Hints:
The protein has helices at residues 21-32, 63-68, 136-148, 166-176, 193-199, 216-224, 228-231, 276-280, 282-288, 305-312, 317-335, 339-362, and strands spanning 36-43, 48-52, 55-61, 81-87, 90-96, 102-106, 114-119, 123-129, 152-158, 182-184, 205-209, 236-237, 243-244, 249-252, 258-261. By secondary structure, it is α/β, with parallel strands linked by helices. Strand 1 and strand 2 (48-52) form a beta hairpin.
Amino acid sequence: MHQNVIALKTNFTFEQLGWNNHFSQYFTPLQAQGFEAGRIAIENRNNYVVLSTYGELKGEISGKLQYTAQSEAEFPKVGDWVVMQVFDQQAIIHEVLPRQTKFTRRAAGKANEEQVVATNIDALLIVQSVDQNYSLRRLERYLVMAYEGNIEPVIVLSKVDLADDLPQKLQEVSTVAPEVPLLTVSNQTTDGYKALENWLPPQKTIAVVGSSGVGKSTIINHLLGESKQETQAIRSKDAKGRHTTTRREMHITSTGNILIDTPGMRELQLWENQDGLSQTFADIEALAEQCHFKDCKHITEIKCAVLKAIEEGTLTEARYQSYLKLQRETAYLEASTDFIREKNERFKRIQKAYRQQMKHHKK
Length: 363
Ligand SMILES: Nc1nc2c(ncn2[C@@H]2O[C@H](COP(=O)(O)OP(=O)(O)OP(=O)(O)O)[C@@H](O)[C@H]2O)c(=O)[nH]1
Ligand SMILES: [Mg+2]
Ligand SMILES: [Zn+2]
């Protein structure tokens, strides 16, 4: 099924694209049936850019996948490995291989919809610039999301040329996330670039996230080096004349790192919470075990270890409030009884519309 294939750009090996046993276990039987595999680099409105052993392909989803998908989250996302047929330079995507990890948030403005930002990520580079963007509370939120998605977090403080109190910020961050690797970079002085390059594991997928304007694309462009002109995303200029990333996009560096650039996210609502919260706030959960009452709510109870820690200054009130806030956010979601029903109904509507459209086409 792959005669007449003309490679557009570099032909990638599976390994270069981040393949591992997890995927081959699902793909082997499908390969025997003649299917190909590729990895989603860009999701456009109506099609995809897929990287493969044939190079870069234009991908479209099959009618069957369109029809059987139960929710928006089941469609291919940047980072996904997909099962496909290749004709000329086109790929028909039949299936998404089970995701190893995913970075997910609640869709902006929609209480009950999961938005998958990117998938199959090994490490999440959480970028915060040391100017007004710096926020320990937002950092905690990102950490919960990383742990929730089973992704190893790494914190990058960017624009450190602008900081006059960097040691204090480093101290604060390491209190909030003692176990998480912490890097600093400046594009102005190139401080930290070497350490960042040394840290990057080859053939692992690294997604770069953080607010708009913190320097995510600047970091990625630096890592892409010479090849950046070729691979740079098409970007639009915002009101301040700044290039702002408008879509998620996967890049492969010449040294074999797989990087996903993402647009800055304004809303960062948690989608689910199994144990991301416990991992992020391990200090608070450990304290809670010392409370006198098993079901202590740490509000007015006597012999409460959490309240005691706040009083003694070993835990900040702000961090504790952050913990409560994130807890409430997910509790609300779980309590929402309409949640599943609404989700299903919405997709029945979409499927119905699609079927009608198909009927129309056949006429
Ligand atoms: N002073 C200073 N400015 C920087 C640094 N890194 C990036 N900038 C500037 O910050 C602005 C935003 O950088 P981008 O890399 O586009 O930011 P981004 O995080 O990709 O933003 P979005 O795509 O909107 O999410 C640009 O004008 C950069 O030149 C740095 O280390 N120091
Ligand atoms: Mg950007
Ligand atoms: Zn307590």
